[in-house]
C-alpha cells in the first residue's frame, strides 16, 4: 500500500513520464523539499528502475557490474510512497481532461505532468540499416545485446566518432572484437577537439588496435545468405567485415507523445525558462526538451533543469526563484587510460581569439587555450587534465586572466598564484596593511 508522507504540503497528483536519469533525479529533488506534491506517480517504458545510463560504457567494456548502475530500486520508490509503473509507455495525453493512457491500457488522471522521455539514437538513411546485427547503444538491452554479439562475432563496425561511438568501440574492443570505427568528419570528436588533440586520441586508439577511418562515407551495409549484416561498404570501395554494426551518430528527442498531445514541438518539446511547455500544467526537461533552440545530450545542464522544475512544482507561486539559464558545458571521455577535457569552441576565430598551446610529446600532454581579451573561452586538454575544471571555472566566471598569462599553460596552481599576487597588489583591494 502507498504510504503518505506527513510533511507534504500539496494535495496535487504529479505524474512523471520517464524513469531515466532526469526523471529519477527529479524524484530525489522533490523528496528533498517539504512542499512536494502529496501524490507522485512515475511511469517508465523500460522494465528496470532508473539506472545510471552514463555507466553503460564501462558496463559494455566489462569494467563494471550491472548492479552498480541502479540508482534506486523499486522497493525504495515504494518506501517513499511513490507509485512506480515500469514497462509501460504513455501513449496518449488528453490535456482537456488531464488524463493519460499507457500502452497497457492504464488510465491515470494528473494535476501536473512532467515529460522526461529522453531521446532515441539517430539513424542515417543508409541501405541495410534495418538488418539483424545492426545495433544502437542507448539502454541496458542494447548493452546486453552488444555483449552477446561480442561473444558470437569477431568483427564490429561502429558508425560515429563522437563520445558515444568511441565508448562503444572501445567497449567492443575490450570484449575481444576487431573494431572499425567510421567518422564522417576529418577528426574524432570534431565538436569538442581541435585537430592536434583529435590526432593524439586517434593515435592512442589505433595503438590499442582500433581501425579508425576518418572522412569516411558509409554507402551501404551488406547482408549474408542468412540475411544478417556481414559488411559495411564505404565510398571509394573499402569493404569492412562486420558481424555487428553499432550506429552512434547522435540522438533525436522523444517528442511523439508531446506532439500528439498538441504541445508545441520543434526539434524537442519547446519549453520556457521554467521548463514549462505550451501547456502550463505540463513541464518537460532533459533530452526531450528544447530551450531557446538548444537540445541536450549531457547531464550537467539537465541537473540544473531538475532543480528549476522541482522548485516550480513545490512552490509554484514563489517569487524571485531563478529560472533555467544556459551555461557552457565541459566534456570528458570515458575511455580508461585516455584523459581528455574540453569546453568551448574548437576553432580560433581569426582576429578574435588568442591561442596559447603547449605540447609535451614524451609525456603525451597537450593543452590549447582560446582567449578573447584575456578571458578564457575554450580549452582542450589531453593527457594531464587535472587543471581542466579550474580553466572551466575561470571561463564560466569570465575572469580576466591577463595577470596570470605567463603561467596559464602551466596549470591551475601556478596560474592561481599569479592571480592571487595580482589581487593582493591591486590598489582597489582593501589592503590589510592600510588598516
Ligand atoms: C552509453 C551512454 C553514455 C553516456 N555518457 C555520458 C557522459 O559521460 N556524460 C554525460 O553527461 N552524459 C552521458 N550520456 C548521456 C546521458 O545519459 C543523458 O543525457 C541522460 O540520460 C538524459 O536523461 P533523460 O532522463 O533526459 O533521458 P533518459 O535517461 O534516456 O530517460 C528517458 C526515459 O524515458 C523513457 N520513456 C520514453 N518515452 C516514454 C513514454 N512515452 N512513456 C514512458 N517512458 C518513456 C525511456 O524509456 C527512458 O527510460 C550517455 C548516454 C549513453 C547512452
TrEMBL record:
Keyword Isomerase annotated: no
Cofactor: FAD
This protein's name: NAD(P)/FAD-dependent oxidoreductase
Residues annotated as domain FAD/NAD(P)-binding: 13-291
Organism name: Billgrantia pellis
Family: Belongs to the FAD-dependent oxidoreductase family.
UniProt key word Flavoprotein: yes
InterPro entries in UniProt: FAD-bd_OxRdtase (IPR050260), FAD/NAD-bd_sf (IPR036188), FAD/NAD-binding_dom (IPR023753), FAD/NAD-linked_Rdtase_dimer_sf (IPR016156), Rubredoxin_C (IPR041575)
Upper taxonomic lineage: Bacteria, Pseudomonadati, Pseudomonadota, Gammaproteobacteria, Oceanospirillales
Domain (NADH-rubredoxin oxidoreductase C-terminal) ranges: 330-391
Stored Pfam families: Pyr_redox_2 (PF07992), Rubredoxin_C (PF18267)
GO function terms (MF aspect): oxidoreductase activity
Keywords: FAD, Flavoprotein
